[in-house]
Amino acid sequence: PASASSPAQVAAEEPAKILDWSQHPGVIKAPMVGTVYSSANPSSAPFVQAGSQVTKGQTLLIIEAMKVMNQIRAPRDGKVIEILFHDGEPVEYDHPLIIIE
After folding, report:
1. From residue 34, how far is each of 22, 73, 83 by CA, in Å?
2. 96 phi, psi to nearest 5 deg
3. Which of 48, 51, 67, 82 could form a disulfide with 99 if both were Cys (CB 3.0 to 4.6 A apart)?
4. Residue 27's closest CA among 85, 71, 67?
5. DSSP letter assigned to residue 75
6. How far apart (Å, rounded) are the C-alpha atoms in residues 45 and 15?
7. DSSP code at position 45
């Protein structure tokens, strides 16, 4: 019975951990306050999506701050496992945006 309850207990704890993406080692956080965009313009495809492989220096998103479009680039190679923003939403400094593993 103890082994039967262990997987259920682990499954119950996992969602709580996932809710706090800011502590994930692969989190990309907003380096500034502004409005976040997933693509260069509304008719363009997003720079990345969940599941995308990225390389160091690749543009992940844009943050518009004071009418300047700031490209936020991947700090390393990896795979995008989570997108944590909605296109066009305001973000604060250190807001978790993307998770790369």
Report:
1. 18, 16, 17
2. -65, 130
3. 82
4. 85
5. S
6. 30
7. P
- Give the H/E segment covering residue 18: helix 2-19
Q: Which residue has the tokens 């945006």?
A: 97
Determine contact, residues 12/84, Cβ cutoff 8 Å: no
The DSSP call for residue 62 is: E
Two tokens, residue 27? 């989190």
Residue 20 has pLDDT above 70, yes or no: yes
Nearest-angstrom CA–CA distance, 46 and 25: 23
Tokens, residue 44: 């363009």
91 pLDDT band, cuts 50/70/90, is very high
